Amino acid sequence: EKNGYDHFMLKEIHEQPDAIKDTYRGRLLLNDGIIKMAGIEDNIERLTSAQRIIIVACGTSWHAGLVAEYIFEDLIRIPVEVEYASEFRYRNPVITPNDVVIAISQSGETADTLAAIKLAKEKGAFVFGVCNVVGSSIARETHAGAYTHAGPEIGVASTKAFTTQITVLSLIALKLAQFKGMLSASQLREYIAEMEAIPAKVEECLKVDAHVKYISSMYKDSPNFLYLGRGYNFPVALEGALKLKEISYIHAEGYPAAEMKHGPIALIDEHMPVVVIATKRGHYEKVLSNIQEIKSRKAKIIAVVTKGDTEVREMADHVIEVPETLEGLTPLITTIPLQLLSYHIAVMRECNVDQPRNLAKSVTVE
Ligand code: M6R
């Protein structure tokens, strides 16, 4: 069932072009510039009148929530908070009937996320679920929802669940923006067209595999890694670090690049590999100066850049090129090489990629 791949994780990484397509299939109508999503349409007034959106999730799904925060605030101008479900539920949070809670969960069975939903419902909030597993507990417990349609994800490390969550959350934001009249017809069309171009661009990203494998062989014995990104690529940095930790058992941290100088930069020396996401759209100049700071401390720089980039290439030890897209859709692209990097490093370290130690696919205990 691994379809010729050595591991489910690798198979699932490669399934992403199709999984993303399956997620938007039937929901995007390019010619009409329309997004169809019943769970949103049926509750459109409730959703667009929200005073606040609170996103609850754990792990990788929480990272997808962080990406959604950027998308929602950009497109629909409703304040968004992203919460670890486990902290939210035990914190006596302020929740009102004017809030919309979005719960994100691949499995739909994560105990803390489920408990957070129950709490939000008790307080009168409207709860919307983004799940992959059809008929799961979270899918049943929420007032409405949208499935990711990623197909079964077997590898413990989440890959296609993450990119399809971002896909569906982008569609939700676009749908709400459309209803609120916050996007012109041409802006909406541009977004939809670009979304439809994503599967082919992800396919192109997958072609960096051999190069990423080579980079992996150089750094597989490093005890630490740093991952840096800004804006939409900040959650991608967190996700890249989580992926490396969970499957290769290398300590890794993700940071917003500008936070470096507030502490983590003290860690940097010539032994530290630093993965920097430095794509053209989104704070490029700022990231360049962050790279300079790291470079002057002699760290090894592995940069994810937009195809054709020359400036980062001059400073970085390795560059991984990815195709350009809209800033809001960048995480769908920049995540891919980071998945491959953690995968290859884990394989080279002879780790159990699909079933890392101490981890379960869904965390049904609190
Ligand atoms: O099924 P869920 O999306 O609710 O799971 C949440 C986390 O347990 C999950 O994303 C976990 O962090 C993954 N192992 C990450 O790869």
Automatic annotation (TrEMBL):
GO annotation terms (biological process): amino sugar biosynthetic process; carbohydrate metabolic process; fructose 6-phosphate metabolic process; protein N-linked glycosylation; UDP-N-acetylglucosamine metabolic process
Transmembrane segments: none
Keywords tagged on the record: Aminotransferase, Cytoplasm, Glutamine amidotransferase, Repeat, Transferase
GO molecular function: carbohydrate derivative binding; glutamine-fructose-6-phosphate transaminase (isomerizing) activity
Subcellular location, record wording: Cytoplasm
Residues of the full protein shown: 250 to 615 of 615
Record's catalysed reaction(s): D-fructose 6-phosphate + L-glutamine = D-glucosamine 6-phosphate + L-glutamate
Cellular component, GO annotation: cytosol
Biological function: Catalyzes the first step in hexosamine metabolism, converting fructose-6P into glucosamine-6P using glutamine as a nitrogen source.
Name the UniProt record assigns to this protein: Glutamine--fructose-6-phosphate aminotransferase [isomerizing]
Catalytic class of the enzyme: transferase
Active site per database record: 361 (for fru-6p isomerization activity)
Keyword Metal-binding: no
EC number(s) stated in the UniProt entry for this protein: 2.6.1.16
Assembly, per entry: Homodimer.
Domain SIS intervals: 43-182, 215-356
